[in-house]
Specification:
Layout lengths: L5 H27 L2 H9 L3 H11 L1 H31 L3 H27 L1 H18 L1 H17 L14 H11 L5 H12 L5 H4 L1 E2 L6 E2 L4 H9 L5 E6 L1 E10 L13 H6 L6 E3 L4 H11 L3 E5 L5 E6 H9 L13 E3 L5 E4 L4 H8 L11 H9 L8 E4 L2 E9 L2 E8 L1 H6 L1
Parallel strand pairs: 2-3, 5-6
Antiparallel strand pairs: 1-7, 3-4, 6-7, 8-9, 9-12, 10-11, 11-12
Helix pairs in contact: 1-4, 1-5, 1-6, 2-3, 3-6, 4-5, 4-7, 5-6, 8-9
Length: 422
């Protein structure tokens, strides 16, 4: 070894340090790269992404290859450094060479390449895959042997292979990914995706029109009154019944009467244009009901409880609004049930579903036990309150403004900042 020029030793040392940096950076880049971004690039035709995917399918082999290569070059670099510095500084060269190599390896072969790889994993991982893939093929027997020995040690220590896909995301994890890592997705689109995930937690009774608010047509009414009712009916579809909604006959699509002369619109004529009513069990999740509407090609369903009694009405547009937001209003604007007052308070219809209030105002009123604001207030007070009664729920001060038909009809709600001012 004494015949080898120092220039050649230091050149070999430099090459080994470059290899060490390559292995260190490759490991960090491949382990930290976004798997879903990598999947997208592979589908777009990136060969480097496809090779990286194949390497990551069996990470124990990849890690074995990288560590095998990194340890080989680092140990070789240590040996060359010792030889070179002994020739320069004698016996003290061992200590000097160790100190110098430690600093050089730490900075140029560990910290710098790993930092770059962590900040730009795609830039490092994809090119590195072109080198690591053939290296793995060439050294596979040695890598396999090392992995088997390592697996044996882990087995003796009590480690077992986990079952299932370790990279599968739960709904909660996917929600966190969209909230924290979806900044490249437009805000409106990201909110729609979050709303789709939230549908799993909502049921039809959270968004249905309560029974006492169902707008319908009573065929037992006077024909002239019935025609007048039809002329000003606010929706495109109407439940049709005799006497009460419990005697529902079917659903009328008002489009079927557009070309019909008014004098021909009689109860019997309307009944001949009805479609059979479609009933929805109470407690059905919104995701399931949306698919059911699609399957049966319906847009309106009557919600029934366990006894078969009608408790409300749900429509496909109601479910779609849970995903895309209100079609006719935006957060902060007045709606039919929520009015914003000049003093910062809100006047809310007591029959408004809590789910709608939370979605429209961004609040977190509890929905586990009660479906409407009236139910929440009566349940919190454990009695039907009188007008003027006040309570506080989730930091919101509420004052009952009106009572009627044994329900809280109107509530004034003071948000925290408004309550503080008052």
């Amino acid at each position: 070894m004494d015949d080898i020029p120092l220039s050649l030793l230091f050149s070999a040392l430099g090459i080994l340090l470059v290899f060490s940096a390559f292995f260190s950076g490759s490991e960090t880049a491949l382990m930290s790269i976004n798997r879903y971004r990598l999947m997208h690039l592979a589908r777009e035709g990136s060969r480097g992404a496809r090779l990286a995917q194949q390497l990551l399918e069996q990470p124990e082999r990849l890690i074995g290859l990288i560590l095998l290569g990194n340890n080989f070059v680092n140990i070789s670099a240590s040996a060359i450094t010792t030889i070179a510095f002994v020739r320069i500084a004698g016996e003290a060269g061992v200590l000097v060479g160790t100190a110098v190599l430690t600093v050089v390896v730490l900075i140029f072969s560990e910290v710098a390449p790993k930092t770059l790889a962590a900040l730009r994993p795609e830039r490092v991982a994809l090119p590195a895959s072109y080198i690591l893939w053939p290296l793995l093929k060439c050294s596979f027997p040695l890598v396999w042997l090392v992995n088997r020995l390592a697996a044996g040690v882990l087995w003796l220590a009590g480690h077992r292979e986990p079952a299932g896909d370790a990279h599968a995301l739960s709904a909660a994890e996917l929600r966190t990914l969209l909230e924290e890592g979806g900044r490249m997705i437009p805000e409106k689109h990201r909110q729609m995706l979050l709303n789709i995930l939230a549908l799993e937690e909502a049921k039809v009774e959270d968004i249905m029109v309560p029974r006492n608010e169902i707008e319908g047509l009573d065929l037992d009414a006077d024909p002239a009154e019935l025609r007048a009712r039809l002329a000003r009916f606010p929706f495109s579809r109407a439940p049709v019944y005799r006497g009460s909604v419990d005697q529902v006959l079917g659903i009328l699509h008002l489009r079927n009467l557009i070309d019909t002369p008014a004098e021909k619109i009689t109860p019997d004529f309307i009944e001949s244009r009805l479609r059979k009513p479609y009933f929805v069990p109470e407690g059905t999740p919104l995701t399931k009901q949306m698919l059911e509407f699609q399957r049966v090609k319906r847009r309106v369903g009557l919600v029934v409880d366990e006894y078969g009694d009608i408790v409300g009405l749900v429509t496909l547009p109601d479910i779609l609004e849970e995903i895309v937001g209100d079609f006719v209003s935006a957060p902060g604007q007045n709606t039919r049930r929520i009015q914003h007052a000049a003093d910062g308070s809100l006047l809310i219809d007591g029959r408004t579903p809590l789910h709608n209030i939370n979605r429209h105002l961004g609040w977190e009123l509890p929905t586990d036990e009660f479906s409407t604001l009236n139910g929440l207030i009566v349940g919190s007070l454990e009695a039907l309150p009188e007008a003027g009664a006040e309570l506080e729920v989730e930091g919101l001060r509420m004052r009952v403004e009106a009572i009627g038909d044994n329900v809280v009809q109107r509530v004034r709600v003071f948000p925290p900042e408004s309550a503080a001012d008052g």
